[in-house]
UniProtKB/TrEMBL annotation, chains A, B:
UniProt domain Pyruvate carboxyltransferase: residue ranges: 29-291
Record's GO cellular component terms: cytoplasm
Keyword Transferase on entry: yes
InterPro entries (UniProt xref): Aldolase_TIM (IPR013785), Carboxylase_cons_dom (IPR003379), PCB-like (IPR055268), PYR_CT (IPR000891)
Keyword terms of this UniProt record: Transferase
Stored PANTHER family: PYRUVATE CARBOXYLASE, PYRUVATE CARBOXYLASE, MITOCHONDRIAL
Domain of life where this protein originates: Bacteria
One Pfam family from the record: HMGL-like
NCBIfam families (UniProt xref): PRK09282.1, PRK12330.1
Transmembrane segments: none
Keyword Ion transport: no
Protein name: Methylmalonyl-CoA carboxyltransferase 5S subunit
Amino acid sequence: MVIRLSLALGFRAPVRKGEGMTETTTREIGVTELVLRDGHQSLMATRMALEDMVDACADIDAAGYWSVECWGGATYDACIRFLNEDPWERLRTFRELLPHSRLQMLLRGQNLLGYRHYEDDVVNRFVEKSAENGMDVYRVFDALNDVRNVRQAIAAVRRADKHAQGTICYTESPLHTIEGYVQMARDLMDLGCDSLCLKDMAALLKPQAAYDIVKAIKDDLGTDVRIHVHCHATTGVTLVSLMKAIEAGADVVDTSISSISLGPGHNPTESLVEMLRGTPYSTDLDDARLLSIKDHFATVRPKYTQFMSAITGVETEIFKSQIPGGMISNMESQLRQQGAGDRLREVLLEVPRVRAVAGYPPLVTPSSQIVGTQAVFNVLMGPYKALTAEFADLMLGYYGATLGERDATIVEAARQQTGKEPITERPADLIPPEWDRLVSEATALEGCDGTDEDVLTYAMFPGVAPGFFKERPDGPKNVGKDPAEVAAERLASASGGGPVHGPIRYSVNMDGKAHSVTVERA
Amino acid sequence: MVIRLSLALGFRAPVRKGEGMTETTTREIGVTELVLRDGHQSLMATRMALEDMVDACADIDAAGYWSVECWGGATYDACIRFLNEDPWERLRTFRELLPHSRLQMLLRGQNLLGYRHYEDDVVNRFVEKSAENGMDVYRVFDALNDVRNVRQAIAAVRRADKHAQGTICYTESPLHTIEGYVQMARDLMDLGCDSLCLKDMAALLKPQAAYDIVKAIKDDLGTDVRIHVHCHATTGVTLVSLMKAIEAGADVVDTSISSISLGPGHNPTESLVEMLRGTPYSTDLDDARLLSIKDHFATVRPKYTQFMSAITGVETEIFKSQIPGGMISNMESQLRQQGAGDRLREVLLEVPRVRAVAGYPPLVTPSSQIVGTQAVFNVLMGPYKALTAEFADLMLGYYGATLGERDATIVEAARQQTGKEPITERPADLIPPEWDRLVSEATALEGCDGTDEDVLTYAMFPGVAPGFFKERPDGPKNVGKDPAEVAAERLASASGGGPVHGPIRYSVNMDGKAHSVTVERA
């Protein structure tokens, strides 16, 4: 399907053909549409209800995307925690409504969609079940770029005869080099991956780096190694990075339809299409379908205003802190809860220091939360006066290996605080078989239907699953709100229970005489 | 100052120098900062008051910009119409606050900053006076790309020994070709321009076109012809276009500080800086200064929320209609006034047809308004049932020559409606000397101080100047509003004209004595 011409030529003018006619030999660039997963995850805290997506599916299915990312990441958690939606039902619905599309998901390797490591059998079952329910393409990553943590999931995807995509999380540090990324690409391809993803979750990937990494991987592993590039848009430069990645040979890029794009989200699908016009590359997406998809989500978007990210424009300061956009608002709320809302800048300066101490992990779920929260602790209580349990585990190797060495003093502090020993093996190797236990615990819960799918829900979200199983019969809860309703609520809260305003002083001239008047709510 | 290395090399990896060290020979790219003119013109209807800019000037002056666009365009009109600010005083203030910067303005050729053609003597006086008051760089354009209409202004700028920048308005049509743009570049350079500007006022310039045009001009006229590239951001692709223009040899690009950027505005300055890191190009702007400028305008921006453009994300449909972002909201309001708010899409489809009838003019002030309003008329009353006076003039040649032939039937209709004959000469050649008349009319007005500057104000805005001269002594009027004040007003209007609320009780302290007061709608 993909014609690989002019791969190594970089940017060049189209071929001219007599009398002003232009004939262009183009290489087709695949596009993964993100709106059904990472688009709304990044812009509206993953709150979009399935019912607000279904009407766009026919257009999405026919638009000509390489794949449709629609599951995984934080959607599973959001479904059961906020939306009373069964994530498996959502997957089956997409399978039905997108019959001609490759369904794609984001899978956190050995963490699956949860926040701890699972034993291999649980990983295998998750992949089997999701494949059975309709998943096609698995983008598998590990937050530390520890390839041992994606090995099992990738093997399971291959066994299920689905598309296994090995992921390189892009980050920058004194230790991260192009050669290092090429080595990781080699390691992932050695696992039998069908493709690679260069994942830029914080919009740090600048054009030159995008070009150099994609080029180096293609040069080293061969041009038939498929490379997908995923960028967020937060810093404003990454559409250029996609252009450069394409020039260097990237095969597929990720975008989100314009009405759910930009800010901490992604580059707009339509802009990518237009960017490539007249170049030796094209997307072959259907403009009319894109317009319908855009219009659909432009209507949906205002319903979720209350969940929208505060970042709307670009934010280039994150090149220094390297903190993904979504995390900054998280930290702000942590700080405010501690009455330290004014100390965000200190925390942003602390994050790179904590990251260095931890051996320069990429910052992506869950490492971003772990490093970010420890930075908040350091600012509020003094450096490493207290370690979070997760940060201690990170320092002790329980999340896997980092590229850099971890600070020995803090490793020792973690050892003393937790009583756990540092490890160097693959964390999952220390986990005893747990499937049977998970089955018996899950099936004992009210409302659990006894399927492997329910057991997996319990396995990944043991705190949320019991409530979800119980309330599931009530059916999906759409947390979006009619914009008119939102305006009315805001008004009511402003005139009634809003913030207390101090007294206001007026000078009032009444019947020709000046009075000093103070007014406050009684 | 600008080192022209690797000009024709396009994009390439930096030069490697042993053991992982990277040494890069870079070409310095100049940057024109737009925030003081086109930035707020595009995003907040040109309403920003001078007092909201002064505190940023020290940082702007020291940041390392090639130039600072701060005058011209719609700012002159906005100053006297909305802000009770003398535009000449604004210019002198910038001259004082930006002593190390090149001040830049946008000048509509023979139209100056008004909406009709002026006799050459008026053009000369305007350029002399603005040069005297501190202007350095004149970007001179004509809405129809009729070089005859910029000739006089460019000659005047050269006589004043200032920087004359000839402008190519970028547009697309069956008749617009790269060779045509090169020919226009040649014509402009023949006038003695110091540089050229490729002006993309509607964000239509895609990366390949940007590359091809800049490359073709440099190839034809020589690499020492300085090319500046001005793009809006509305379609989301033009930062990539700037990258490609730079690769093709562009010398200076225009951006606006991130807190006043994107949407119908421009690409963010900081994103441009980051985009170029590691490439063979660099900006040498001062990051710390940029951060201060950004923070300053991030604080100012909320004051102008009421004037903000409705377009916040990207809008790629304008590739079809070619209508600049600012104009769409204009049309919407025209249509609403006629009770036809639902017919915008019809109008957007009509615009390209009207443009074809008119010989494919670029759409930029004033041609965008002229074509847009005629499209509204056509939709509301039937095609060309009524011609606006301005559209009739456009058809008859009174704005100058267009690239394409104008529709003979409509030219005839214009002739019959107006009684005017079609012309082919330079429109200003038909205007008799008018300076003395303008002087006597202006100086007769109350409050006119008799300076040439005041006469020019009257010449360009004869309807607005009388009121302005009278009210000028009251001093500048800042139309920005404290965000808290805006919220309070919204609340007041909501509790007033909105749903009826019950009585509200206040405790009112009057001259030291407390009263319990109940207020309700009478």
